[in-house]
Design brief:
Distance between the termini: 139 Å
Helix content: 40-55%
Oligomer: single chain
Number of strands: 10
Low-confidence stretches: 1-16, 54-109, 111-116
Strand content: 5-15%
Strand order of the largest sheet: 3-4-5-7-6
Radius of gyration: 37 Å
């Protein structure tokens, strides 16, 4: 039997299904396209949001850190706010709360006050002749030369603990004179001490004791009697040391009240206020001004060298100990017989201090920014150094001429990088002097 397949009935049965599938295909395609677009949009949104959220948090943290840093600086600046009556406006509300005699409200004119105080302040920014004449002589070029010549023939007979910390020692010579020996493993500190001493001489500051460099050589007459003492001190042979003349009659020196947090400035109006203070007689006033004149040199010297071990030490630690400004200043002493301030231990200057400027520059600048009374001689030397820009050659010439071949063989001269920074800081002091001239000068 032959079988036949009927196409008529099959075609008739499938037609609605095919038609439905053809109708469904465009809608399905649209749904797929819509789904793909939606998935792409969600993925793109997430891909953009995640980095944005990250960078937002990153920059927020960075800005917060930067803001915190700025706020810290503002706090530091505010702690030592400049509130000089002559430097601020005459708004009475600004003057309230500060226990200082106000000149601004005086019935006398400023010109009359300047005439009255002309012997104390000249041209509104320089210490007057009366103050200059009262300054102690200190240690000048002749005394430095005598000490250097003495050491070329000196014979040491005793070495004992003293003259500060660590491996420093006090040395006694055959004729009874004494000296202080600074020994360090790091030659940077010996360089810092020596070149800070040379810089003080260029600035004609009489406040540093005579010093010279020597070498620990047990075969030399200077050290030949001290084999056991040198071994006990754990000194190595062929090491550079700085030998400084021992100074007796030294007392601790405190930071003057005018440089403590409630004040922190010195300009002609502050000197005028002091001169009208009924609690100070003429002798006490002059004594205070002589000390401040030496402080004006100290502020410039420590700024130039970036000394970390004196006033910056107190300023930095003030944030933890508010009483530290009442403590004696580090590495500063006063001779009881002459009121000379002696600038001790300058080993952090010009090298180590320069490496840490990023951290401590704000503290170095605090006093300089608010100093507007200078010794005329110091200001003139700064102007000359700024003009000639020869401080590097001056320091290196002193090093070459004053030291033996043995010293120069083991102790490097001042690096170029230090000379560059020193020139920049000389410029900065010059700018400060110029600013004070524009603000306070009578001429």
């Amino acid at each position: 039997m032959t079988s036949y397949v009927s196409f008529g009935s099959g075609k008739s049965d499938r037609f609605p299904q095919v038609l439905w599938e053809k109708q469904k295909l465009p809608a399905y395609r649209n749904l797929c396209l819509l789904s793909a677009v939606f998935a792409f949009s969600v993925g793109l949104t997430i891909g953009i949001l995640i980095p944005l959220m990250y960078f937002h948090n990153h920059y927020s943290a960075k800005n917060s850190s930067s803001l915190a840093s700025q706020e810290d600086q503002v706090v530091i600046r505010t702690i030592f706010v400049n509130n000089s009556y002559g430097y601020q406006s005459n708004n009475h509300s600004e003057l309230a709360g500060y226990p200082t005699v106000s000149f601004v409200q005086s019935s006398k004119s400023n010109s009359s006050l300047d005439e009255t105080n002309n012997e104390l302040i000249e041209e509104g920014m320089f210490w007057g002749e009366k103050v200059e004449k009262a300054l102690p002589e200190g240690y000048r070029e002749r005394k430095h030369t005598i000490w250097s010549d003495y050491l070329t023939q000196a014979v040491a007979i005793r070495l004992e603990n003293g003259c500060g910390r660590m491996q420093n020692r006090m040395v006694t010579f055959k004729d009874g004179l004494k000296g202080c020996v600074r020994y360090r493993q790091n030659t940077d500190q010996i360089q810092g001490e020596l070149f800070s001493f040379y810089l003080a001489q260029i600035l004609e500051l009489p406040n540093l004791a005579p010093s010279a460099v020597s070498v620990v050589d047990l075969s030399s007459p200077l050290w030949s009697n001290l084999h056991n003492e040198i071994a006990s001190a754990q000194w190595n042979s062929n090491r550079p040391i700085v030998l400084t003349q021992f100074i007796s009659n030294l007392n601790s020196a405190n930071i003057p009240a005018i440089f403590k947090p409630l004040e922190r400035h010195l300009n002609k109006f502050d000197v005028l206020n002091m001169s009208r203070n009924s609690l100070l007689d003429d002798g006490d006033l002059l004594k205070s001004l002589v000390e401040l004149a030496q402080w004006s040199d100290l502020i410039i010297f420590d700024y130039l060298t970036a000394n970390l071990d004196r006033i910056v030490n107190n300023l930095y630690n003030y944030q933890w100990n508010v009483n530290i400004m009442d403590a004696p200043a580090h590495n500063l002493a006063k001779k009881s017989d002459s009121d000379l301030l002696v600038f001790l231990d300058n080993e952090s200057g010009l090298l180590h201090g320069y490496r840490l400027l990023k951290k401590y520059e704000i503290y170095h600048s605090i006093l300089l920014d608010n100093l507007c009374v200078f010794r005329r001689k110091t200001a003139n030397i700064i102007r000359k150094l700024k003009t000639t820009r020869n401080i590097g050659s001056l320091l290196r010439d002193m090093f070459e001429k004053r030291n033996s071949a043995a010293v120069k063989e083991i102790l490097p001269t001042l690096p170029d990088k230090s000379v560059k920074i020193l020139n920049e800081r000389i410029d900065r002091v010059y700018v400060q002097i110029a600013k004070c001239r524009a603000t306070f000068s009578n001429t």
